[in-house]
Amino acid sequence: MGKSCEIKLLGTAPSHFVNRVQFVLNLKSIEYEFIDENLNCKSELLLTSNPVHKKVPVLIHANKPPILESLIIIEYLDEVYHDIHPILPSDPLERAHNRFWANYIDTKYFPLFEELRRTPGIEGKKEVKKQLDEASELLEEVFVKSSNGKAYFGGDDVGYIDVVLGCFLAWIKFVEKLNKFKIFDEVRTPKLLEWTNRIWSHEALKDAICGSEALTNHYAMLQIKKP
Amino acid sequence: MGKSCEIKLLGTAPSHFVNRVQFVLNLKSIEYEFIDENLNCKSELLLTSNPVHKKVPVLIHANKPPILESLIIIEYLDEVYHDIHPILPSDPLERAHNRFWANYIDTKYFPLFEELRRTPGIEGKKEVKKQLDEASELLEEVFVKSSNGKAYFGGDDVGYIDVVLGCFLAWIKFVEKLNKFKIFDEVRTPKLLEWTNRIWSHEALKDAICGSEALTNHYAMLQIKKP
């Protein structure tokens, strides 16, 4: 270890992108300093660290140039701290498939939740929910293949896709409650439903996700900013 | 080597995403079978290989499950054939920065070219061109830092960012000709301009990019499909 205290993470609690980094830091037992950002009034450190996107998470390791984008940060951590709880498999083909599905989750799955939020009216939301159901069923298939009968996408232990999708669970639960429907259920996604319960109680994740009050406030802010 | 004949690449010549894979295969002197796809009538092999996005490039290595998405494919090739012309640096921090800028090029820089195409009228296009100039100047800065006085983003030899941006040069030249303006010039981006000439004549790229006639046809098809 030794490197652990040298890590600063700029983030905000309701961001599942930030939570991914926290989850991996926890899995690898790396100590870090969390610098809480107010996204309505971004700090000088955030603006100079990420002048292109001006977004969290930002990871600063030993005062070296900042590392940006959640997937890039967790892959960096996995490369630097590869001996402790590796999250990406060592086989290049499996690594490629992990990256593909993480990318699918970020560019296809999550945007459907955003579309659900923006779409007005019950009928409109129903249409988006149908697409969400299809996407969730696809992820169920991915889980069955990846886990190979074991507990996680990563097999016996939490892996890359577990981190990426797992950190979104607080939001999924929030969306379920808000819309009075289920994203994961016994019929369409029985294995993923079991997985959600398993990963939800994982010690390393518990510490990384925020409560529903913070999510409610954050959601309200989103609704005001981008109606 | 030995593995070289076992590679099949499903692609189409005017796609700079496909060209990236060809460029890396050439750099690493890997033989491969190119399967030309007609995107107006996609093959059964493409549809079953990439049922999610139904897009090229698709790489099939030794009849194993297909690998999808250009950046994921070239990273896979770099991991499997790591002894021959590595394209990603070995330092985790530098790797992270390479991934960040590749991601920037794909999600911020290229979409500006798409916006330019879709925006009607000279005044509208001028506005997009202004954003493109700012983005190109940013890439000039990245080049200066990354190349450290050497020939390429990757230093003495072609690296990850060179591949990602380099394969787009045919399109950039096409857009310059079509709109009668320059994307890279002596004033705003002098170093990148030199780099374009250098990489344009690189043996491994020459073979990977198609002529302007094919681009003209492809562009015309895009204009019809998504006006």
Automatic annotation (TrEMBL), chains A, B:
Membrane spanning residue stretches = none
* Biological process (GO), any one: toxin catabolic process
* Span of domain GST N-terminal: 5-85
Q: What class of enzyme is it?
A: transferase
Catalytic activity annotation: RX + glutathione = an S-substituted glutathione + a halide anion + H(+)
> What GO CC terms are in its UniProt record?
cytosol
Q: What InterPro entries has UniProt attached to this entry?
A: Glutathione-S-Trfase_C-like, Glutathione-S-Trfase_C_sf, Glutathione_S-Trfase, Glutathione_S-Trfase_N, GST_C_Tau, Omega/Tau-like, Thioredoxin-like_sf
Q: Which GO terms describe its molecular function?
A: glutathione transferase activity
The protein's UniProt keywords, in alphabetical order, are: Cytoplasm, Detoxification, Transferase
CDD domains noted in UniProt: GST_C_Tau, GST_N_Tau
Location relative to the cell: Cytoplasm, Cytosol
Keyword Transferase set for record = yes
- Keyword Cytoplasm attributed: yes
List, for all copies, the residue spans of the domain called GST C-terminal: 91-227
> Which Pfam families does the UniProt entry name for this protein?
GST_C_2, GST_N
What is the E.C. number? Answer: 2.5.1.18
Describe the function of this protein. Answer: Is involved in the conjugation of reduced glutathione to a wide number of exogenous and endogenous hydrophobic electrophiles.
Please report which protein family the annotation says this sequence is part of: Belongs to the GST superfamily. Tau family.
Name the record gives this protein: Glutathione S-transferase
Give the originating organism. Answer: Ambrosia artemisiifolia (Common ragweed)
